[in-house]
Amino acid sequence: AIVSLSVSLYQVLVWNFGEPATQKIAEHFASIPQSVAVACAGLLFWWYHRTLLPTQSVRTDIQRTYEYLMSAISLIASAIGISIVIVAIIEALTEQAKLSGPGAINTLIGAATVIIIAGPVWWHFWSRIQKISKTEPESEHGSPVRRTYLFLLFGVGGIVSIISLITIVVQLFDGILASNLGANTLSEMRFAIGILLSTGIVAGYHWEIYRHEKDVEVSFAPAVINVLLVGPTSPEL
Predict the structure, then answer these.
(1) CA torsion 104→110→115→116, rounded to 10°?
(2) What is the DSSP annotation of 2-58?
(3) Considering the entire predicted model, what is its pTM?
(4) If you average pLDDT over residues 19-42, what whole number do you get?
(5) What's the mean pLDDT in 101-122?
(6) Fewer Cβ within 10 Å of end Cβ, the chain: N or C?
(7) Please, what is the Cα angle at 57 between 219 and 47, to 5 degrees?
(8) What span, in angstroms and rounded, lies between the C-alpha atoms of 132 and 56?
């Protein structure tokens, strides 16, 4: 749903504010019906399976898994959008436009589209999660679902950041050794720089959260408070 809505909105914004590849409106919007159809199907499946989730007053790991999964999906999409924004800025500075359409403006529109669609979804679920973590810190901070979410985001984000940093260093030394260090080198590093900054922000943010919660004991099952044994009247029993 997020991808299809982003594609549809991107086509509309490029036609009005960007640099479309064709001036024929029928050709430019030829893929819109398919994107809208897929978006509607995705939203329908999303809503239907959301209704199947338990609605007990006590928060369960099933509900947590759903909310953290939705937060992760939308956050990754937003991080991709931020990466593309950085790429677009570097393209504009180096006069390179090779990602989305004929100009850097299309790249910037693509990034803004992803952020506009995915950003509110992430904010909705993450603000709800954080609100619950403040009112019920012991159960939420000790949940294995939350710990897994934090581990994956700052762990994978950290690995991707390191790979991007290595790529930047390799391209930097290549430019120095080839004696052509300049705007062209910066242009070649634009994707690595975008990924490094966006994933670095995500990894750093979630590491900071984990650092404040790492001393909370993780509870994989609710503690047994009372055991009630029901049986026949028997002194021996």
Answers:
(1) 120
(2) HHHHHHHHHHHHHHHHS--S-S-HHHHTTTHHHHHHHHHHHHHHHHHHHHTS---SS
(3) 0.75
(4) 88
(5) 82
(6) C
(7) 100
(8) 15
